[in-house]
Amino acid sequence: AFPGTDLQVTGIDFLRSQNSRLHHTDAYDIKNLVVRRGQPFQLQLSFSRELKATDKLALRFGIGENPMKIRGTLMSLKPREEQDLSGWQISTIKKSDKECLVSVTSSPRAPVGKYILNVKTGTNIYKPETSIYLLFNPWCEGDVVFLADEAQRKEYVLNDTGFIYVGSAYSIYGRPWNFGQFEEFILDACMYLLDKSKLKLSNRRDPVFVSRAMSALVNANDDSGVLLGNWSGNYSNGTSPMDWIGSVAILQQYYKTKKPVCYGQCWVFAGVLTTVMRCLGVPSRCVSNFNSAHDTEDNLRVDVYLNESGEKLDRLSLDSIWNFHVWNDVWMKRTDLPPGFDGWQAIDSTPQEPSQGVFQCGPCPLKAIRDGDVYLPFDSKFVYAEVNADKVYWLVKKVNGKDKYTRINTETQGIGLHISTKAVGQDKREDITAQYKFPEGSEEERKAMQKATSFIQPSRILPRARFASTFPAADRGSKPEVLHEAVPESGLQLEITKKAALYPGNPLELAITVKTSAPGSWTVNLVGSCQLQYYTGKVEANLGYVKETVKLEGKSEMQVPLKIPADTYMKTLASVEDEVLIHITAIAEVQGTNDKLTKETTMSFEYPPITIQMPETAQLNKEFPCAFIFTNKLNVPLDNCKLVVEGLGIFKMTMFDEGDIKPGRIMKSEITCTPTRTGERKIVAKLTSTQIKAISTEKSITITE
């Protein structure tokens, strides 16, 4: 061939292993090159002949259906011109014979997604088979998701396992969850969601738009998104929300079928949204709020209606207090807001109420919630109410066949407790309440509350029951009442405790302690009730109540037992498909005074543990055995037991049918594992049965080369 032959590209090496190591993307189970924006990566080009000074060469990166330079969706990079107008850069590192090594740096503001690369030499165009994935970059100072702390980046971007905190404010426990953002098809599922979001490509630069869109797409409500929510108690035509142990199976099924997966409840939505955000490169964490206010109609108040036995009456309530609710925080700069609102932002994909016509929520700066700046986007009023509403208790008595409502008391510190997430680099709970709220009763809290209530109109204190036609119409001109807790003259206090472990099959041994502290003789009428309820606060069964009159002198106390036999609740436990909690309510009235007090507590049942037996370390690609052992220490059989286990980078999700496990029986299942990834890996196991919806555990193992 004579020297004037056309220059042709004969191949491109994406140098996947060295690029992905430097970009912290080596864990993604995908053949393509995955890189983060604003950071250089190298490509090795091979040509049909040696490069000459006169040769024209351009690398063209395009995103979207119709990439165009003018829209910033097509970048044409010429190694001789180094800088492109789009903020991308290219430089030649070395040339030898027929090869050329180039370094490409994308703009830290580039749209995130799948890019097609083609190389133009003169009139020839070379198109490699595979696309390049470009993600957000928390390691790059120029990226709005930049996170300075390496330990935090490890936790909030790279950790593919974690805990989601559930239970009740009285008994919080961590449920292990596999996020699995690096597993097969997960990145592709996230790219599919980005396309489905119909976000303009220019808005894909901005994690504010991306996280808001993902909060909408993880629920199926408007857009046939990932998960269908179901709180009905009937999950027969899908998977019960209690049965999932991670996001991987959900996102893989969704990507395969492109149809919503059945079913999710809040922790499942939050687990999947964490996976999606971490997968795209946005630092993210699951956040659990205990005693979370719902549907407060923008008035910062939840009304709780009790009958004369102290039992909660659901049918009257328009709003509810969930024992816990789980949402997400994502980390980013808010260039769309005044200074000072960067950092953690709350987003929520559980479909509760529409925002701008769609079931989506956030991002809302934690600082705006803490300071009471509830006019800032997005949905800050809604999140503020979840952590700051007041509880008003009403006693409902039948008078001449009609319901008569009396206000018992107001509790201003019962909502938004123990806001929790997994600690950085440790398997323990971190309390982040202080990032959402100032200390209860502090001067800052009072100021934030005043600011917030100037944007949220608290209504006057009238019960807002469904059938409240028996009330005088509210006078329109009246000022909203700011709630205060009354201080009882007797110094009345209530405490609810358990006297023994709450094992299914045993009687529930509970106690209500009545205390007075002021001098004098006090006669207290006490009622206490016990109910089974779902985590959403919905009552499933009334189990029994106690009524006593207690006489106390000055500073003294008395304990009133409340005992529920096992056969009162075991049928309910076996007939529902959700995990239920034990809810105790006490109402005390001091005779001859206006002192009235209500106290409620929710407790979780306690279960025998599962143990995992395996070596502490193992080698890459070498088999090791792993055993799961469970002893039924309860005095009731567990029917229809299933064990689900998963170890990311060790083995795919596996299910064992364990049949019925009688009291005292030991179950043992074994699996042979072959690790495919190094580092600290985790194995998660969950046992489900008719009586107990979930007992879960996890254990770590270190995999070496």
From TrEMBL:
Please list the reactions this protein catalyses: L-glutaminyl-[protein] + L-lysyl-[protein] = [protein]-L-lysyl-N(6)-5-L-glutamyl-[protein] + NH4(+)
Instruction: Write the Enzyme Commission number(s) for this entry.
Output: 2.3.2.13
Write down how the cofactor binds this protein. Binds 1 Ca(2+) ion per subunit.
Q: Which residues form the Transglutaminase-like domain?
A: 258-351
GO function terms (MF aspect) = metal ion binding; protein-glutamine gamma-glutamyltransferase activity
Protein's UniProt keywords contain Transferase = yes
Q: How does it assemble?
A: Homodimer.
Q: What is this protein identified as?
A: Protein-glutamine gamma-glutamyltransferase 4
Lineage, highest ranks first: Eukaryota, Metazoa, Chordata, Craniata, Vertebrata
